[in-house]
Design a protein that fits this description.
Helix content: over 70%
Radius of gyration: 31 Å
Distance between the termini: 104 Å
Strand content: under 5%
Largest sheet: none
Order of helices and strands: H
Length: about 70
Amino acid sequence: MCQKCSNLNEFVENNMLIDEKAQISAEMVLLIGAILVIVLVAGSYVFDISQSVAGNISSVIDTARNSTINKM
């Protein structure tokens, strides 16, 4: 085997490893991005539910307070 061919094979093998690492890095970035989007959507949904519950509790307390005051 010639020296140039050996160097070329090493170069190709080294670049393939770098490409595989780059592919893994790109997939990790996409995965983390997707997880971030899911967390943000779920957080928004939970926040909306908590605001709705807080509004309902406030309404019930106000109604009970007004009812109690009117009975006096």
